[in-house]
Every structure is written in C-alpha cells, then in structure tokens.
Specification:
This protein is an all-beta fold and 252 residues long. The chain folds into 2 domains: 102 residues, Macroglobulin (MG2) domain (Immunoglobulin-like), CATH 2.60.40.1930; 105 residues, Immunoglobulins (Immunoglobulin-like). Helix content is 0%, strand content 46%. It contains no helices and 19 strands. The strands form 4 sheets. Strands 1, 2, 3, 6 and 7 form a 5-stranded antiparallel beta sheet that branches. A 5-stranded antiparallel beta sheet has the order 10-11-12-17-16, with no helix packed on it. Strands 13, 14, 15, 18 and 19 form a 5-stranded antiparallel beta sheet that branches. It is globular. It starts with 27 loop residues before the first strand and ends with a strand.
C-alpha cells in the first residue's frame, strides 16, 4: 500500500541544463498534495506544478515532450548515495508517480520539463523519509573517480582537468566487466543521461553526451559552476537494460 504525502515547500535556486542552455530561474513551483514525514518504504507521490508567471496549473497540455517524456523527476538523498530518475504521469490536475525508498533521509525531488513557450524548468522540494534503514552519513565523501561499474557495465570518463565556470569536454566510454562489447541504444532519445550534483546536494546539472562515430563513446559538454566535488550518475541502455553508474569528479 502506498502512502500519500503533503509537504511544506523548500525552494532553492537551481542549476539546470537539460539541453545545453544556461541557468534557469524558478518559473514553475512544485506543490505536493499531502504533508508529513514518510514512514513507509513505498509511496504514491502526488503533486501539482504551478506556473508562477501565469498563476496557473501546469498540466500535460502545458508541456512539450522533452527527451521522450513530458516530465522527469530526479530524486537523491543528501549523502548522494540513493538515486532515481522517474517519469510522473498526469492525473486530472495533478501528477503522480510511485516511489520506493531504501533508506531514511531528507531527499531532494526535482521536477524537470519544458513549457510550451520553450522555457525549461527545474523545481525542487525536500521529502523527509523515516523508515527502518537509517540515512547514509553526511556530508558525502567524494573523490575524483572517473571510472565506475554497476557490476556488469562500466563507464569511464576522460581525465581532463575541470575548471569552475569553464565549459568541460569529457569523453564518455562504455564497456563491460567481462570484456564483451556493450550494445548501446538511445535512452530517452540521448546517448546517455548525466545528472551531476554538487557535494552540498542543493543544485544539479542535467546534460546529455553527444554521439560520436563510436557507438559506445560519447562527448560530454558541461559547465560546473563551483569548485569542489560533484557526484555524477550516468544512465544508458545496454542491450535493452537500463544501467545507472555513479562516478564523481573534482572541479578546480
């Protein structure tokens, strides 16, 4: 059984770059329909989106399809250990999606999409979860880890030195632990999806590597606004199975 929640809203200024565009202000706000601390591992997260410019609800008809979906929901915990990339569906004047938690913690939820006028939005809210398994310790401990695996698939980033505020160009190479070649296919219309979260967890970058002549190699263009460490989650399809590989980088 799912637990439906309503939450007090906490908003921050976000760095959101879904299509290589610049920073985006909070044009759209997310308003969950129930409040309270989550006490169960599975919930039905129901919320509304409000366009603060027109003071109107943002439904399915108010959004463009962006990477094959009307709406994306990014979820992670402050320790940058837990991660989900989900796709809510419209339900009357609300949006809804089942969510499962593995750990306690004060999670970040980011609703991301594109309005009909072409403006991107990335709207955050915090969700407090108190279940059997305790929260991961914070602050997160990150290093410059340019290669990682989910046990089967491997992602390797090139070693270029990254500078805050400067466009980075990193090659993204996909491989497998057993030495066989991955069978990469587009995931939501892109070579891969990369979510980069600063170590304080209160901002994120969402970018997509460009295709190259090698089907298992892409080129990532991204600007990291602050010096420090970033958690990266790289998602891609290998032989029809979605893979999610965590990495981390240091920015100077």
């Amino acid at each position: 059984m799912y637990y439906v929640l309503r939450l007090a809203l906490i908003f921050v200024t976000a760095t959101f770059n879904a299509h290589g565009h610049g920073d985006v202000d909070l044009r759209v706000e997310i308003e969950p329909t129930e409040t309270g601390i989550v006490k169960t591992e599975e919930i039905e997260f129901r919320f509304q989106l409000v366009d603060t410019k027109s003071n109107s609800l943002v439904g399915e008809d108010a959004l463009r399809i962006s990477h094959e979906r009307k709406l994306h929901l990014i979820i992670y915990d402050p320790a940058l250990k837990e991660f989900q990339h989900l796709h809510p569906v419209a339900n009357d004047d609300s949006w809804v999606i089942p969510v499962k938690f593995n750990r306690s913690g004060e999670y970040w939820f980011w609703a991301q999409g594109e309005l009909l006028d072409g403006e991107d939005f990335s709207s955050p809210v915090r969700v407090t979860v108190d279940i059997k398994d305790p929260a991961w310790p914070t602050p997160p401990t990150l290093s410059d880890l340019r290669s990682g695996s989910d046990g089967i698939s491997v992602v390797t980033l090139s070693k270029e030195r990254l500078k805050a505020g400067k466009m980075a160009m990193l090659s993204v190479e996909l491989s497998r632990n057993d030495g066989t070649e991955p069978v990469n296919s587009p995931y939501l219309g892109a070579f891969a999806h990369v979510i980069a979260v600063f170590s304080d967890a209160d901002s994120l970058i969402h970018v997509h590597p460009m295709d190259t002549a090698n089907p298992n190699q892409g080129m990532l263009h991204a600007t990291f606004p602050n010096a420090g460490y970033y958690r990266l989650w790289i998602q891609f399809m290998d032989a029809g199975t979605l893979r999610t590989v965590p990495l981390s980088v240091r920015v100077f």
